[in-house]
From TrEMBL, chains A, B:
<dbReference type="Pfam" id="PF03448">
    <property type="entry name" value="MgtE_N"/>
</dbReference>
<keyword id="KW-0129">CBS domain</keyword>
<dbReference type="InterPro" id="IPR036739">
    <property type="entry name" value="SLC41_membr_dom_sf"/>
</dbReference>
<feature type="transmembrane region" description="Helical">
    <location>
        <begin position="441"/>
        <end position="464"/>
    </location>
</feature>
<dbReference type="InterPro" id="IPR046342">
    <property type="entry name" value="CBS_dom_sf"/>
</dbReference>
<comment type="subunit">
    <text>Homodimer.</text>
</comment>
<protein>
    <recommendedName>
        <fullName>Magnesium transporter MgtE</fullName>
    </recommendedName>
</protein>
<keyword id="KW-0813">Transport</keyword>
<dbReference type="GO" id="GO:0015095">
    <property type="term" value="F:magnesium ion transmembrane transporter activity"/>
</dbReference>
<keyword id="KW-0472">Membrane</keyword>
<dbReference type="InterPro" id="IPR006667">
    <property type="entry name" value="SLC41_membr_dom"/>
</dbReference>
<dbReference type="Pfam" id="PF01769">
    <property type="entry name" value="MgtE"/>
</dbReference>
<dbReference type="GO" id="GO:0005886">
    <property type="term" value="C:plasma membrane"/>
</dbReference>
<feature type="transmembrane region" description="Helical">
    <location>
        <begin position="376"/>
        <end position="399"/>
    </location>
</feature>
<keyword id="KW-1003">Cell membrane</keyword>
<dbReference type="GO" id="GO:0046872">
    <property type="term" value="F:metal ion binding"/>
</dbReference>
<keyword id="KW-0479">Metal-binding</keyword>
Amino acid sequence: MQDQITPDDAFGGPDAGDGAYALDTVAIDAILESVEAGDQSRLIELLAPLHSADIADVLEQISGAEREALLGLWGTEFDGDVLSELDENLRADLIETLPADVMSSALKDLESDDVVDLVEDLEQLQQTRVLDALEQADRVVVEQSLQYPEESAGRLMQRELVMAPAHWTVGDAIDHLRSENDLPYRFYVVVIVDPKMQPIGKVALSDLMSSPRDTMLATIMDEHFHVIPVTQTQEDVAYAFNQYHMVSAPVVDEEGRLVGVITIDDAMLVLDEEAEEDLRLLNGVGDESLTDSVLDTTRQRFPWLGVNLITAVLASVVISQFSDTIEAIVALAVLMPIVASMGGNAGTQTLTVAVRALATKDLTASNAMRVIRREVMVGLLNGLVFAVIIGVVGVVWFGSAMLGVVLGLAMIANLLIAGMAGILIPITLTKLKIDPALASGAFVTTVTDVVGFFAFLGLAAVMLT
Amino acid sequence: MQDQITPDDAFGGPDAGDGAYALDTVAIDAILESVEAGDQSRLIELLAPLHSADIADVLEQISGAEREALLGLWGTEFDGDVLSELDENLRADLIETLPADVMSSALKDLESDDVVDLVEDLEQLQQTRVLDALEQADRVVVEQSLQYPEESAGRLMQRELVMAPAHWTVGDAIDHLRSENDLPYRFYVVVIVDPKMQPIGKVALSDLMSSPRDTMLATIMDEHFHVIPVTQTQEDVAYAFNQYHMVSAPVVDEEGRLVGVITIDDAMLVLDEEAEEDLRLLNGVGDESLTDSVLDTTRQRFPWLGVNLITAVLASVVISQFSDTIEAIVALAVLMPIVASMGGNAGTQTLTVAVRALATKDLTASNAMRVIRREVMVGLLNGLVFAVIIGVVGVVWFGSAMLGVVLGLAMIANLLIAGMAGILIPITLTKLKIDPALASGAFVTTVTDVVGFFAFLGLAAVMLT
């Protein structure tokens, strides 16, 4: 069976393109109808063709009540892979509510690394619940992986892998693979190890296939490859896969012994996570998901708004210092938000570029000075341009040349500072080993607000009164 | 040789961890010294162990003058893969400046899809320059790919692939692979096609390897797989790979005939691009890179700041309607930015979640209503909480209970509106087939600024004067 993804239909419903997208509203409605009708065979028939990731999406998109009903009707038919596709918070809920028999039958469908990925975010009590549902052998493997730090290569890797000594021939390897009946579900390379179990090369399956049986693996193995320390952060792992277009890489322990392998599909998920995290943090959102309750979401967002309130009050304190000036010239109150807001935007622009460049390691000690200089120049240039524009606006609007000059000067000052803050703050945080995406935003806007109001009102106080 | 990536060193320099990271400042300094010394053999020796992606990073991180000197010294030794690793703008510059002989020798190193990826962003004149440097055969392939729309599967796919009829045995396939001497550089599956060249299944190499020679491919082929229409957007392709954990997928033309294959490493790059694009657009940055000149960068950012200026002036117009009120109670001027800024932040929070959820198709017609309701409730709740906090601040600071009440009510109104705008605007834009990340930011902040100032000053005018 062939599916064509045409995600335009995601917002389609009845009018949706060719409706081929596995998950258009029509499909979901049909599923919900079968649930309401309590028609299990129909439900199973509808879910059968769907990928577990799509089924997870269904569960995420329907209401809590509908979800409960669906799971109840699905029963032990429940597909374990769906669990690993669900977003964390919903997954935790499910694991709490799923009956023991459903759980254990569900877990049988999973690879060890999926189970790890599944239990690591759970609280102690739920973890034990899952681990108990596992067979002894699997449980041991999972518990071993859980020994490694969170978000480390050790958690990401799969332990099932294919290895061979360098003196084997292609024929030996193929015969081994044919005889071996417990092969990993998916593998792309044979890792070549020395007697001490240290990886010394790898042979891509495509090379293995296309070489004569009597070829020695040593002669076709790729000796230039990356090994990943088991303790390396998943972020660095994803970076390596992306930077070097790796498809799979051996993971080694402190003694350099082969302990597992990480494949590109794992890295791809991490890369996606990390990019999304930068986006969220930069815009003041935590690790929330659409299925979170109103209360959870409110609690999640509160701290970010709290920080913003403090910086906003700080800006107000600055303004309050110039109450008399404002009282004398009320036009200042009208115009002052412009300078601050422009600074905030310019600062965010620089900050965004800087944070991404730091994440992708395009911004390093080698070019930091040049980039800083560039951002300052850009801030100055845009400052000059917008100084003229806003200056004219000020003059035309309030008919005071001097007011226009004040506006222009304040604009230059603030965009210049915005550029500096936007680049210096994330670099400094990185040097302090703090995630620049996390805190930079608040710092930068504080700077641009304070400077914006102070420059504008201060200049006005001096030059207009 | 084994490299361990320890990107902490990216900001390391001499004090950098174990310095194993291919690109610590030490390495770059050494390279630059060899360039200054004009010592070509030393330069080549230093670059040899580096991955082309790392060499590209070096070129991106050194100054323009240093770059020129390095390339001059490197000469025809120049590695073509570096071209495809460079960021677009710098790549364009290079292609303009590289001598013809260097170009043609460089291009020989590249796969057809890399060449396509390389020329598609170039202007007509440069394109011809590159195409002329190609051998006839390659040129035809590249020109064919360029027939497909930009950012389509047709541009992304590689045409080199391995296919076989269903009636072949594993042995036939392996013998074919061994005899075939023009195999793709990297492949993971054998695509099974019918006589009309339409894909009817695929066999992972790992399954091919582990099956006896006499097994019919028909019996081990996976018939449940995604085919990608050659005209599908690369964004949708990346989504499919990420959603369904695909490793490679056949690409078909209008008649469903196999025309190429896309592999996960291509999809990974696109996914990274698309996530970065969302981040940039949401924060008002275009497709710029660290190597852009000051002037280019200034020009790039100008339009975003221009739009922001318009919305800021709009807010000022609202404020100006209440000049008399402000003149009477200058405290209003001091406090009014708080309400606006809180609204802006709350709106951005919702917007960020919405834009990502739309990109990952977690927000669809099926759950839109529920999500909208949730965002409104969250806005209301946080509004109530911060209304109390800011109300108290107002009372304590200016000793007017009424002022506190006004502040609180305005806060509730603005956070409520912020929640609505943050979710409704991106959904509407999506329905209008406009990228929500592109325009939402400006709309949302305009709404929150206008509503923020209007609600606060309007209420003040009514209740305080």
